[in-house]
Amino acid sequence: xxxxxxxxxxxxxxxxxxxxxxxxxxxxxxxxxxxxxxxxxxxxxxxxxxxxxxxxxxxxxxxxxxxxxxxxxxxxxxxxxxxxxxxxxxxxxxxxxxxxxxxxxxxxxxxxxxxxxxxxxxxxxxxxxxxxxxxxxxxxxxxxxxxxxxxxxxxxxxxxxxxxxxxxxxxxxxxxxxxxxxxxxxxxxxxxxxxxxxxxxxxxxxxxxxxxxxxxxxxxxxxxxxxxxxxxxxxxxxxxxxxxxxxxxxxx
Length: 252
Fold this sequence. Notes:
alpha/beta, 2 domains, disordered N terminus
């Protein structure tokens, strides 16, 4: 099963648009960022160098994004047929229209994807989108960043936006650790009783003056959520201690 088959359908209707990208490595790195989040449609508006070996190298295996990328001559061509266009900008603009944080913007993007394609537009590395380019976008989106140093690398910005789009699409599942059989009540009770016997033999527990030692051990065992094998390990440790105590008692 490929990445797109595992990703929500809405992500297949997102297109990342890179405008006047100057460094081919950034195109490759953006492709890698896209594919990790299940977004596969890339449109390049007058890139300085493409195709280019530098893009392939930085794609790190995400070359199918580069192989299917469209190269167009204008932003208006890149936005044709879109239900919504979102322009990314870290710089305040006087006439930017609606300005949203990237998380809210990606929520709207995924909603709009039910109606048609959505373009996520990124400007050139040095200055971002021009005012005229941003004006072609229905929403201006900004990534909340350190106000004293808010400049993100192009591929890093694509990664953040693609991640937020994936979350907005509901694809937030992550891998899970293997689950093992939990210990039964009887197994934990037997461990508790075994611990009491061993600690008594060690003279760590005085049955006549037990204080709170055993209740605290019971709480510890309860919080741990012990598994069947873990109980067996602890019982094995206690059994080894029991054997050593017996040997010492026999003078061996």
